[in-house]
């Protein structure tokens, strides 16, 4: 009876909705990291990841020597943590740093590198590519990897393109024309989609020249200008980005500065950043583009250094402890704020920041797990029919969100396969192309 009311145009419109779901899953074969580590190109060496691990382990052991200490640092009046959870997370952090301290990495030729002579940047582009090739040979590269170039803007565009070309050409010559599996070029200071269009054209030419598959080089954009958080410009960035655009990264301090926010008020939780986050989720996230938060600029780094001949005085040691813990606690608060807004990934700039990120993320996942697992099991039990658990209504869209929650938690080692089983899932479920496949198979 209702069939006669549906014409061909209606059917085409309805079918297009399924195609939109396909777009949302276009990067489902690439893991979801919880951080992107930025390191200056002049410092990048073949042992960089091992060095990051050693520094992170050393700081964790020096300033958080046991789980009771961890509990005292990271349980906050506004965010209490049980001692049982604190102990679990403490040991998970040790394991994670040992096995995989860095999930995603960018060699930085922008803010973390600065402006140098052309000769010097040429040299660093070539040496960074050479070091990358050695890391690839040793099988030690993070699962997602790339470089951040300078802006495609007057005064810097030629330098950005030259660095990109030198790095890629050198790397491909040393790796038998093979790129890392998920190689990303991050474009900063994006104010107009035309900048990304130029980069896409350059990447297409580099792929053609080097006989690489189309769209084998992915892109990310920095969301850090007022223009970029104007709805029409951000929507155009998505359109122009096409199937290359993996993510949008929030540049907190540049964005704050551009709004005239004074230095003492520039921080991750500023309202201007929350506005940008919401818009990113609506426009980028809806299109399957990953939304990545910024970084806390308070470094958990000890200001005083001891030597063999001059050990630290008590008051200097106490200053070190206070500085490191304050840095951890500030980042912990900022990351919790980001997690509440659905941002599971952010930046790290120093190995010590990995501690506070893992603390915030792991505590978040473990605290959220009981309710999420019950909702997931109930959802799967009802075979994708809408369900209510403790007053919470679940449909297919929220079921997909729950699935991502478990995939994020599993990939960063907050969860293991036993945790997935407790939610009615398996490891394979996390990588299904369609949510309906999971619900049907789990119902059988």
Provide a quick synopsis of the model.
52% of the residues lie in helices and 10% in strands. It is an alpha/beta fold.
How would you summarize the topology of this molecule?
Blueprint: H1 8-24, E1 35-40, H2 48-63, H3 67-74, H4 83-99, E2 104-108, H5 118-137, E3 144-148, H6 157-174, E4 183-187, H7 193-209, E5 217-223, H8 231-241, E6 245-250, H9 252-258, H10 271-283, E7 290-292, H11 314-340, E8 346-348, H12 353-381, E9 387-389, E10 392-394, H13 396-411, H14 417-422, H15 435-443
Parallel strand pairs: 1-2, 1-8, 2-3, 3-4, 4-5, 5-6, 6-7
Antiparallel strand pairs: 9-10
Helix pairs in contact: 3-4, 4-12, 5-6, 7-8, 11-12, 12-13
Describe this structure in words.
The protein has 444 residues and is an alpha/beta fold. The protein folds into two domains: 35-365, TIM Barrel, CATH 3.20.20; 367-443, no CATH class. The chain has helices at 8-24, 48-63, 67-74, 83-99, 118-137, 157-174, 193-209, 231-241, 252-258, 271-283, 314-340, 353-381, 396-411, 417-422, 435-443; strands at residues 35-40, 104-108, 144-148, 183-187, 217-223, 245-250, 290-292, 346-348, 387-389, 392-394. An eight-stranded parallel β-sheet has the order 7-6-5-4-3-2-1-8. Helix 8 (231-241) links the parallel strand 5 and strand 6 (245-250). The radius of gyration is 23 Å and the shape is globular. The mean pLDDT is 91.
